[in-house]
Design brief:
It catalyses: a purine 2'-deoxy-D-ribonucleoside + phosphate = a purine nucleobase + 2-deoxy-alpha-D-ribose 1-phosphate; a purine D-ribonucleoside + phosphate = a purine nucleobase + alpha-D-ribose 1-phosphate; uridine + phosphate = alpha-D-ribose 1-phosphate + uracil. With 235 residues, this protein is of the alpha/beta class. It is built from six helices and nine strands; from the N terminus they run βαβββαββαβαβαβα. The structure holds 1-O-phosphono-alpha-D-ribofuranose and uracil.
């Protein structure tokens, strides 16, 4: 049986999956890192592939931008395809002077300004958080790979183009490390369905310094994060 937004037949998606926002990043990961990648989803061009990494089956699925979009894909992966481990591989903007472009942030928790939690009939004071199983494993693997990474609170926002220039400072004041747009919904879906989820993001721009990663830096930095996430998914 197919789900509404994913036209894969049952059994075609691995137990562990990487989740980039950009479907072309999913294609890039499949073609450059996976052995024998097979396209399982092309509905809306939101590409999904299954292949093997170091011999172990793993999938990669684009999720689109924002919580409504990742909410749909991960819900179907959880309810229709039996996926157990969800690793977001995204980009984010840093609010913290010690976290530079190219660093990796692990979202221990994801604060949010979104109303996604209404789906579960809970107040917005709910704290969406990562699964300890993936977070603790990521800590060990990241150390072993000698990565520049930090773990902490991020904020998942509904809006990319805020009109108030200082909007991010209220989050920085509470030691929120970075902004992205999906982790909170991923964590809520995972909590509800008792799945494992971890969002990791590579910093591509900096709110304090105004720096933005170049195209070359994005490729190099993504490479580290992708190899990290694939080790995490397959060990
Ligand atoms: O690079 P991705 O994974 O899409 O993540 C970030 O980039 C997009 C905004 O440019 C949002 O989806 C945000 O969460
Ligand atoms: O959501 C995002 C992602 C990267 N950089 C940002 O400023 N916001």
């Amino acid at each position: 049986m197919l789900s509404i937004h994913i036209n894969a037949t049952k059994g075609k998606i691995a137990e562990s999956i990487l989740l980039p926002g950009d479907p072309l990043r999913a294609e890039f990961i499949a073609h450059n890192y996976l052995e024998e990648p097979v396209l399982y989803n092309d509905v809306r061009n939101m590409l999904g592939y299954t292949g093997r990494y170091k011999g172990v089956p793993v999938s990669v699925q684009g999720t689109g931008m924002g919580m409504p979009s990742i909410g749909i894909y991960t819900w179907e992966l959880m309810t229709e395809y039996g996926v157990e481990n969800f690793i977001r591989v995204g980009t984010a903007g840093s609010f913290n002077e010690n976290i530079k472009n190219g660093d990796i942030v692990l979202a221990v928790a994801a604060s949010t300004d979104s109303n996604y939690s209404h789906a579960f009939n809970i107040p917005n004071s709910y704290a969406p958080c990562a699964s300890w199983k993936l977070l603790s494993k990521a800590h060990d693997i990241g150390r072993e790979m000698n990565l520049s990474m930090t773990a902490g609170n991020v904020v998942s926002c509904d809006v990319f183009y805020e009109t108030e220039p200082d909007w991010w400072k209220k989050w920085a004041k509470m030691n929120v490390l970075a902004v992205e747009m999906e982790a909170a919904a991923l964590y809520m879906n995972a909590a509800y369905h008792r799945k494992n989820a971890l969002a990791m993001m590579c910093i591509t721009d900096h709110f304090i310094t105004g720096e933005k990663a170049t195209a070359e830096e994005r490729v190099k930095n993504n490479d580290e994060m992708i190899r990290f996430a694939l080790e995490l998914a397959t060990r």
